[in-house]
């Protein structure tokens, strides 16, 4: 069961003002209402109610997602969201009724008055947010648990972006500047788990920042896995508006990357496209694309465990 707080929405308050109450008529006719009674009535109208609601009541009967206006109801009482309505036209996706549905204004008014606590109250967030804005709030909540893609990191953490986390909690990570469209040789030292790759423009401003992760794999497949994560840099508070617009535009730019490792038996390479920049990881990172270098491919004399690994990276 979920506890929600109900308060009057502007629409509900406006409708109430349009309909005179019996108490208003009595006050205008008799003129004997005291000031204290009026203040008590006003306080009664504005107070919030805390009720217990089954979470299923606030879900779409078809897709079971959170309800958000506009809402529709069939003749049998099933409430569905606009997305489900678009899939079926005018029918009900739950009971397959072909009868026309109608707007469910009552539930829309109810949701407009519902405020729910953030899911991260146990982590320190005390916000009460409108039900329809809960997902958007939790996606940017500074108390949300975040994760680091580097093995051995004491995750989860909260409050900062992934890039800030790397800067403060992993000061040992080195930074390498690379040129666009050209292979850059990178020597990963023994025990080095990650490297920050910075792509700069003609004015030496960082256009994009990538995290190159090297993960030591153990039995049954001994070797190393390499993958790329593009990081999102939060603009400083005192940044100019035009600079912020440039930063936002660059964050939407798509990049292709290439990783190459040579060793016994030939060369292994990985070519891929970076996903949108990662501000924070709200779940443990699972790379969908990575380059696995078998231990047998690495020279046992020069690339044994604890030694350096030479690789090449290209961004464009």
TrEMBL record:
<dbReference type="GO" id="GO:0016567">
    <property type="term" value="P:protein ubiquitination"/>
</dbReference>
<feature type="compositionally biased region" description="Basic and acidic residues">
    <location>
        <begin position="33"/>
        <end position="43"/>
    </location>
</feature>
<dbReference type="InterPro" id="IPR044286">
    <property type="entry name" value="SINL_plant"/>
</dbReference>
<dbReference type="InterPro" id="IPR013010">
    <property type="entry name" value="Znf_SIAH"/>
</dbReference>
<dbReference type="InterPro" id="IPR049548">
    <property type="entry name" value="Sina-like_RING"/>
</dbReference>
<protein>
    <recommendedName>
        <fullName>RING-type E3 ubiquitin transferase</fullName>
        <ecNumber>2.3.2.27</ecNumber>
    </recommendedName>
</protein>
<comment type="function">
    <text>E3 ubiquitin-protein ligase that mediates ubiquitination and subsequent proteasomal degradation of target proteins. E3 ubiquitin ligases accept ubiquitin from an E2 ubiquitin-conjugating enzyme in the form of a thioester and then directly transfers the ubiquitin to targeted substrates. It probably triggers the ubiquitin-mediated degradation of different substrates.</text>
</comment>
<keyword id="KW-0863">Zinc-finger</keyword>
<dbReference type="Pfam" id="PF21361">
    <property type="entry name" value="Sina_ZnF"/>
</dbReference>
<dbReference type="InterPro" id="IPR013083">
    <property type="entry name" value="Znf_RING/FYVE/PHD"/>
</dbReference>
<keyword id="KW-0862">Zinc</keyword>
<comment type="pathway">
    <text>Protein modification; protein ubiquitination.</text>
</comment>
<feature type="region of interest" description="Disordered">
    <location>
        <begin position="1"/>
        <end position="43"/>
    </location>
</feature>
<dbReference type="GO" id="GO:0008270">
    <property type="term" value="F:zinc ion binding"/>
</dbReference>
<keyword id="KW-0479">Metal-binding</keyword>
<dbReference type="Pfam" id="PF21362">
    <property type="entry name" value="Sina_RING"/>
</dbReference>
<keyword id="KW-0808">Transferase</keyword>
<dbReference type="GO" id="GO:0061630">
    <property type="term" value="F:ubiquitin protein ligase activity"/>
</dbReference>
<feature type="compositionally biased region" description="Basic and acidic residues">
    <location>
        <begin position="13"/>
        <end position="24"/>
    </location>
</feature>
<feature type="domain" description="SIAH-type">
    <location>
        <begin position="113"/>
        <end position="171"/>
    </location>
</feature>
<comment type="similarity">
    <text>Belongs to the SINA (Seven in absentia) family.</text>
</comment>
<keyword id="KW-0833">Ubl conjugation pathway</keyword>
